[in-house]
Design brief:
- The protein is mainly alpha-helical.
- The chain is about 70% helix and about 0% strand.
- It has two domains: about 35 residues, no CATH class; about 80 residues, no CATH class.
């Protein structure tokens, strides 16, 4: 038998104080389930900006007729300069990546921003008139 009768929520037994207590309990329970981003993990905006820079660089490298090994040698200095730009080490980038993989809802928000930004960059490059010759 339940402590609360089935009609508890629909009778006068449910007082204002009881309702407030239930809301507090539900709020605390849901708050405990939400995990905060740990220190050292990039926020969504910064991580999305970082990923956009990486994808643009990779796209530029794909336009060159070079081997994958040569592409990696060209990409590594860019990656290091990108980490310096954001003031983050490789370990922070890896920690950020792992954290977002473990939090798919956050990961989806980051990638939505990345895709939107890349689409905007593509639209700008397509609609930009050719320079006069």
């Amino acid at each position: 038998m339940s402590i609360l009768a089935p009609d508890y929520l629909t009778t006068e037994k449910m007082t204002r104080a009881g309702l407030i207590c239930m809301l507090i309990i539900v709020g605390l329970a849901s708050g405990c389930l939400q995990e905060k981003r740990p220190p050292g993990v990039l926020n969504r905006t910064d991580y999305a900006e970082y990923l956009v820079n990486v994808y643009v660089a990779e796209a530029k490298l794909n336009t060159y007729a070079i081997t994958p090994d040569s592409a990696m040698k060209l990409f590594q200095p860019f990656e290091e300069s990108l980490q310096q730009k954001f003031g983050k080490s490789d370990s922070v980038i890896q920690k950020t990546y792992q954290w977002y993989l473990a939090h798919p809802e956050e990961w989806e928000l980051v990638y939505t921003a990345v895709i939107d930004t890349l689409n905007l960059l593509e639209q700008k490059s397509v609609t930009r008139p050719a320079p006069p010759q």
